[in-house]
Amino acid sequence: MGYVSPFRRSTYSPIDGKIRLTSRYGPRTNPVTGEPQALHNGIDLGVPVGTPVYPMKPGVVTGVDASCNDPRNGAYFSVRHADGAKSTYVHMSEVFVREGQRVDLNTKLGLTGGAAGNPCSGRSTGPHLHLIIRPDGKNSIDPAPLINWYPHKLANRSGQVIP
User: Which of 3, 12, 46, 103 could join 147 in a cystine, given CB atoms 3.0 to 4.6 angstroms apart?
Assistant: First the structure.
C-alpha cells in the first residue's frame, strides 16, 4: 500500500466528505464512443476542474505531456516511485512539473481538467481525474483499494461509501 489520496483536505474538501468514483477500473463501455473497451486502466474521480493534484508517493516525474495535443489523454504526467511503481494522472487542465523533477507529498503537480470540449482534457465527458497505478511500472491494477483516502471517503456516484 503506502499510497495517499491525490487530494488534500486543504485543497479539496467535498461538502459531504466524499470523493466520487465516477468510473471503476476494469472492462467497460467507452462513454465517449459507446464501443466496448477491453480495459479501463484506472479509476475516474469526479472533482471540479482546477482541483489541485498531489503525488500519492514521493518520486520522480516522467512522461510529461503538457501540450494538450494527445486526443485521448489531453495533458498528463507520471511519477515513478522508489519501489518501481508508477502513478499516472490524466486529463489535467494545467501541469506544473517537468520531466526529471523530484516530487514529495507536498508538491502541487497540476490542476484537474476533464471538461468536455477542452483540448487539455482529451477524450472526456466531464470534470475528473483519471488515475492509474502500475505497481511494476508496466501493468495497471485497480488503484482504489491501495490508496489511503483519509480525510475523505471514497464513494460511488450516488454517494454510498465504498468499503
Answer: 3
Long-range pairs for 59-64: beta carbons < 8 A, 24 or more residues apart: 59/87, 59/102, 59/103, 60/100, 60/101, 60/102, 60/103, 61/97, 61/98, 61/99, 61/100, 61/101, 61/102, 61/103, 61/109, 62/86, 62/99, 62/100, 63/88, 63/99, 64/95, 64/97, 64/98, 64/99
Q: What is the pLDDT of residues 39-59, one digit of tens each?
A: 889 999 999 999 999 999 999
Is the C-alpha dihedral spanning 7, 12, 15, 21 positive or negative? negative
**pLDDT single digits (tens) 73-94:** 889 999 999 999 999 999 999 9
**Residue 83 has which C-alpha cell?**
519501489
118-134 b/e (C-beta count within 10 Å ≥ 16 → b): bebbbebeebbbbbbbb
Beta pairing class for 43-46 and 147-148? unpaired
Look at residue 100 and tell me whether its pLDDT is greater than 80.
Answer: yes
